[in-house]
Write a structure and sequence with these properties.
Blueprint: E1 2-5, E2 19-23, H1 28-39, E3 43-48, H2 53-62, E4 66-70, H3 76-90, E5 95-97, H4 115-140, E6 143-148, H5 152-155, H6 161-181, E7 186-193, H7 204-208, H8 211-217, H9 231-237, E8 249-252
Parallel strand pairs: 2-3, 2-5, 3-4, 5-6, 6-7, 7-8
Antiparallel strand pairs: 1-4
């Protein structure tokens, strides 16, 4: 399903004329990314399984155009069609934020039941969506790809072997692609958040078990991370001023280690 809404930008938030595509933006980190890039003057495109009604309204209130496509990024052919639909309606994608991800605690022996789908969403979407947007970025001589990795790659968080492996693959993807496309004015980076309070992570088990308090206590900055703590870094990486930052993964974890 494609839903297209066009609004004029208010005078105090001039448009850049550029489009940012964010996946998994119906809530949490992706929603915060969409709102911040809208405030930075980007029109917004979102790919998600469900229609992101609330964030779409916030983007409209800011005065940016909002383009929404609903579909399953775990199916390669569908992911190709989704990014193709976005480009067909917007005419361009200048910033790509592959943020959608699957994760939940699972014993290593049980992982085969979900491994392929998790890797398809967490890793394969980077390849599929980047292939879709790179031709236009090369033609325009400008582009930003900012993927979402995770502090868990560095912490080796138990119970998340497949998730940790997938987020390590994100970091490798960023390093490899950055070396290939920099000559075209395209940068490729990732943001690796620590445990962040989102609708997904704030499960009854995590809250009852005091997980957020224990993690915050192990950080130099002793409070929980929220999506708003990540958006300034995203804004920088998507700016003209970050043209010499590429191939990097920026960890935003409050100076913490996971116990």
């Amino acid at each position: 399903m494609m839903r297209l809404v066009t609004l004029e930008a208010p005078r105090d938030t001039p448009s850049t004329g550029r489009v940012a595509l964010i996946t998994g933006a119906a809530q949490g980190i992706g929603a915060a990314f969409a709102e911040r890039l809208a405030r930075d003057g980007f029109d917004i495109a979102i790919i998600d399984l469900t229609e992101p009604t609330e964030v779409a309204q916030r983007v409209r209130d800011i005065g940016r155009e909002i383009h929404v496509v609903c579909g399953d990024l775990s199916v390669e052919e569908e992911a190709e069609a989704l990014v193709g639909q976005v480009i067909a309606h917007t005419g361009r994608v200048d910033v790509l934020c592959p943020n959608a991800a699957l994760h939940s605690m699972m014993a290593f022996e049980d992982i085969p039941t979900r491994y392929r789908k998790l890797m398809a969403v967490n890793v394969d979407q980077l390849f599929t969506l980047s292939r879709g947007v790179l031709p236009g970025m090369r033609e325009r001589g400008w582009g930003r790809i900012v993927a979402t990795s995770s502090h868990s790659f560095y912490a080796g968080t138990p119970g998340y072997v497949d998730y940790v492996a997938s987020k390590g693959a994100v970091i490798g993807f960023v390093r490899g692609l950055a070396a290939e496309v920099g000559v075209h004015g395209i940068t490729v980076n990732s943001i690796a958040p620590g445990l962040t309070r989102t609708p997904t992570t704030m499960s009854e088990k995590n809250i009852a078990g005091g997980v957020f308090e224990r993690v915050a206590a192990a950080q130099a900055i002793k409070r929980s991370i929220v999506p708003g703590d990540l958006v300034a870094t995203l804004s920088l990486l998507c700016s003209d001023g970050a043209s010499m930052i590429t191939g990097q993964t920026i960890v935003i974890d409050g100076g913490g280690v996971y116990l």
